[in-house]
Predict the structure.
Amino acid sequence: MKATTVEIEDKVDELLIVLDRDIQHMQRSLSWLNELRVLVVKRKETDLGRLLGSIQAESDSYRSHEIKRESIRKDLAHALDCGLEQVTLSGLETVLPAERKAKVAGKKAELRALTEELKREHLSTAMLLLDCARFNRQLLNSVFGLAEAGMVYNSKGSTRRGMTEAFVSLQF
């Protein structure tokens, strides 16, 4: 029984190190989303390309980290004699001594907070990109006369039909 307890505690220590890297990755992801929004608004295409390249490179190297995390979870499932789906941070808290339980609870709280922040920032970025796409589509449609004439409001608030002619002729 002692060997199993030591094995579990060693694997939990490894898992805590892996969770630290997960936290760093999430913090970098938040930074990337902020930088992405700034570069889109400022229309810095070369910097945007560099950012996307570095994100792709980081994603490729992060895959090995995810494999390591899953390996540790499998080892813990074997040591705890349970299924892989039962090896969660909440589940580990129930079987660990007080010191490690507090560390796991702290990492879980930090990961949960970062996950919520990442969801918000991802939604904000997605909304910005959707608005940019919608604006560009409307602009192109009005320039090339591809859209139906819409309603136009004047300074007094009354409406009239928009122009029906394009700024640019599509005929060659």
